[in-house]
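Reviewer 2 asked us to include a model.

Predict the structure of this chain.
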Amino acid sequence: ASNAEEIELQDFAEVIPFHLDFLIFDCCLMGCVEVAYELKDKCDKICASQTEILSEGMDYRKMAEYVFSGEEADLEAIAQDYYMKYAEKSDDTSRSATVSVVDCRKLDAVAEIIKKNTASIKTLADGLDRVKVQAYFQKSLARNHGIFFDLEDIVIKSGADESTINELKDAMENCIICRYATPTFLTYLKIEHHSGLSMYLPDPAREILNKYYVTLKWNKATGLITDKE
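Predicted model (structure tokens):
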């Protein structure tokens, strides 16, 4: 629609006219594996936040320098600069930021591990232990945003064995170029586990979302949600 303010992730990927070296998202909650995986055939790397982004956003003057001053864009410097901008704030509320740079081309190994552990992840999702997983949303907004959880912590809290956890950590280390997180976000949320990517923790109560989720490339690679759910 001509007056639309939002765009579906698949539509966004579809309209990118050529392959990109990177994408930087100065918007909330885009640092999830679903976004990175949907875009992996359209761009090599993304820089994004797992939580919301405070209204000041990124520093575009410094960002331009990091993008254009060298032979290639320094996404690590952009992520670090964004993090430090908020980490050095004097008040607790403003001292709030998460960000990572992800190599989208290296996510297949992560997908394979999730695929092998979907049963235990679903058991976690259906049980009371889901509240123990590192979340990236405000509790007051849980009705709409309560779908973003730390990918690595999901697997850990699902009861994965040490071998699986180590395999996942190796795969994550291979695709996460850098990651930064303040100890808290807006004072209400403790960030005790930050792997650099969030993921949807299946929620049986979100029927409409689950029907949409099966259309994502990430779900097709992992089988996290089936058509019957």
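The longest helix spans residues 162-175. The first strand starts at residue 20 and ends at 24. We have added this to the supplementary material.
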